[in-house]
């Protein structure tokens, strides 16, 4: 919740957070998927930064986010190993963490138990359409699958999938690196902790490299250090300057990390959309095609709400805000972008 400005994405985050909580409330699930309602702590290093952060928190509170102002003198009660001299911060108790691969495996198990089948290593090569243009299934590397509805959940490749259906979606890769430290004792870093300028980086439209420190512990012990953002296409080469910037930012927030080894780093491509909102819902240009992609750096957090909303539209509810959908889908309309220049 903490890094989202008031608006449709924050509403989707509130819905998704509630649904993650419900899922994690089922017996044994929280431990199985490492769900942890640990809270997010955003810190400001200057008085001006703190004013801006508190302004953001005021707006978030107005739409239902819990945001607790934390004075400079209280920061170390909440997060003992933080750097000294910070101006203050805001604590977001609703921010949660989950281990995405375990969560995905659990959801697959649930889906299979409900009758779904999963095919891995099977690429969609064409979206099949009727003479009138409606979807009638997909052609894959393992043959055709016929269905009256197809959901494009291809993440960063959602634009390519849309093109296979004869339509367009401006999904672009936004590269990010993460450093993973050696395991540390539990609760060495208690919250997801990040600097206030991270919010501006997330919202930025720039293709240039941005880094702002984000530090969080994990159930297994390693601390994850992010976050970089840059639009360099699907370039998978490792960047030492980015890794160095991440390490420097993290040690500014947590000086003790200077004595901790980074065991590995990895990179990935966030599915970036020009207006930073995902595409969720039916594609008015291709009957039977639905999109659920383009969540940029929040696709794990927003997964539950997205799945829930797609299930609602697939089972006949509409995205009319006056009807019974849990969230107005119009800001996420897949056809909201002009066709030219795509
Ligand atoms: C460094 C970094 C840090 C991040 N941190 C966070 C975070 O803290 N919180 C958070 O919520 N999110 C985070 N994200 C973002 C998150 O990882 C993404 O938003 C999310 O994974 C998108 O999920 P998805 O299911 O839409 O797409 P994906 O997980 O990318 O899945 C799409 C799948 O579609 C498959 N596919 C593509 N084309 C085809 C085809 N033609 N046929 C068949 N299959 C196809 C792909 O192989 C892939 O398996 C981070 C991302 C990065 C890179």
UniProtKB/TrEMBL annotation:
Residues 6-312 form the FAD dependent oxidoreductase domain. Coiled coil: none annotated. The keyword Signal does not apply. GO terms for cellular component: cytoplasm. Keywords: Oxidoreductase. Pfam families: DAO. GO terms for molecular function: oxidoreductase activity. This is FAD-dependent oxidoreductase. It comes from Streptomyces flaveus. The lineage of its organism: Bacteria, Bacillati, Actinomycetota, Actinomycetes, Kitasatosporales.
């Amino acid at each position: 919740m903490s890094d989202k400005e008031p608006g449709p994405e924050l509403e989707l985050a509130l819905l998704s957070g509630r649904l993650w909580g419900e899922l994690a409330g089922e017996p044994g699930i929280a431990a199985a998927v490492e769900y942890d309602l640990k809270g997010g702590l955003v810190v400001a290093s200057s008085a001006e930064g703190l004013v801006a952060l508190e302004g953001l928190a005021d707006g978030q509170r107005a739409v239902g986010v819990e945001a607790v102002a934390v004075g400079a003198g209280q920061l170390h009660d909440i997060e003992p190993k933080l750097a000294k001299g910070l101006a203050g911060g805001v604590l977001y108790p609703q921010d949660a963490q989950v281990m995405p691969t375990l969560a995905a495996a659990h959801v697959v198990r649930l889906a299979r138990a409900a009758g779904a089948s999963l095919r891995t290593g099977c690429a969609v090569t064409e979206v099949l359409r009727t003479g009138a243009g409606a979807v009638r299934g997909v052609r894959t590397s393992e043959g055709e699958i016929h269905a009256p509805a197809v959901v494009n959940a291809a993440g960063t490749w959602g634009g390519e999938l849309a093109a296979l259906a004869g339509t367009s979606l401006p999904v672009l890769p936004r590269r990010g690196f993460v450093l993973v430290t050696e395991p540390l004792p539990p609760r060495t870093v208690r919250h997801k902790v990040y600097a206030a300028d991270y919010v501006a980086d997330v919202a930025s439209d720039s293709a240039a490299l941005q880094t702002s420190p984000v530090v969080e512990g994990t159930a297994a012990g390693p601390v994850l250090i992010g976050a970089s953002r840059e639009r360099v296409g699907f370039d998978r080469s490792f960047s030492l300057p980015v890794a160095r910037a991440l390490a420097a930012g993290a040690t500014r927030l947590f000086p003790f990390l200077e004595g901790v080894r980074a065991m590995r780093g990895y990179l990935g491509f966030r599915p970036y959309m020009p207006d930073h909102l995902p595409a969720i819902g039916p594609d008015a240009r291709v009957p039977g095609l639905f999109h659920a992609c383009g969540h940029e750096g929040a696709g794990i957090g927003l997964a539950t709400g997205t799945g829930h909303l797609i299930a609602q539209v697939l089972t006949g509810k509409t995205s009319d805000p006056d009807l019974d959908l849990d969230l107005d889908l119009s800001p996420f309309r897949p056809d909201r972008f002009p066709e030219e220049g795509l």
